[in-house]
Amino acid sequence: MKRLFILVALLGSISFAQVSNLQMGDSYYAIRAEHSYGNMANNKNIKEAIKHYALALKEPKEKEEASWKLLRAYCYLGRFTNLDTEERGVFFEEAKKEGKSFFTQYPENAEVVYWYSMNLALWVNTLSYVKAALNVGSANETREIALKLIATEKKGDKVSAARGYQILGRAHQKIPHVFAVLSWVNKDSTEYYLKKSLNLNPKDISTALFLAEYYKESGRKQEAEKLLAPVLKSKPRPEEYLEDERNLMRMRNLLLE
């Protein structure tokens, strides 16, 4: 029995030694919503995921995958944990810079492209309305990123293409039209692109939320209600618990307004 115990312990230690930083990051990311309250998470697990993904960047074979997973973890930390306004601005400034570096290194990796765009958008959200409106470079880069993701539809990547359509639809919805500078922005294009996104990936309920918001802004409340009614019957997915719970909460509030 003693030998068996030692053997099991030895095999366990070998198995543990083989676990990479990338795998450790994935393990902590999978439990990122543990001990959450309302729609906010304790930041302990996501910070551990970030630590291990950052270490994985040093491994050549893991670097590309670790890059987008690190950006994804940054988004979660910034959106679902408590960061004060000043801390949030500094955090997303750094996340944007790091994301730009990854985007330059891996411009054909759809996950890197998408999660960089998310960090870019979150950085813009930390700016004042005037600064955000005047940030033409970021707006145009967002459009380029969206078109890059949309192009993946030809390769059969519906999820990435749906993300591209969603980004472009949201850009038309939120970015102010500035004549001769952001002339491509057209609020009336919002519905077209968000519908394209929803058709390609109906599981992304954030797209349904954005489209419903557009309907509500356009005075089309009944269409918003019809769109959201079946979605509100669903429950948050365990693997996307806080993400879904926040979207469902926003949907319920939207219909009460």
Task: Explain the overall architecture.
This protein is mainly alpha-helical and 257 residues long. Helix content is 71%, strand content 0%. The protein has 13 helices and no strands. The longest helix is centred in the middle third of the chain and has 21 residues. The chain is globular, with a radius of gyration of 20 Å. The termini are far apart. The N terminus is likely disordered.
SSE-based structural type: mainly alpha
How are helices and strands ordered from N to C? HHHHHHHHHHHHH
Percent in helix: over 70%
Largest sheet: none
Terminal-residue CA separation: 67 Å
Portion of residues in beta strands equals under 5%
| Global shape | globular
Mean pLDDT: 87
**DSSP summary, beta strand count:** 0
Compute the gyration radius: what is it?
20 Å
The helix count comes to 13
Instruction: Enumerate the spans where pLDDT stays under 50 for 5 or more consecutive residues.
Output: 1-11
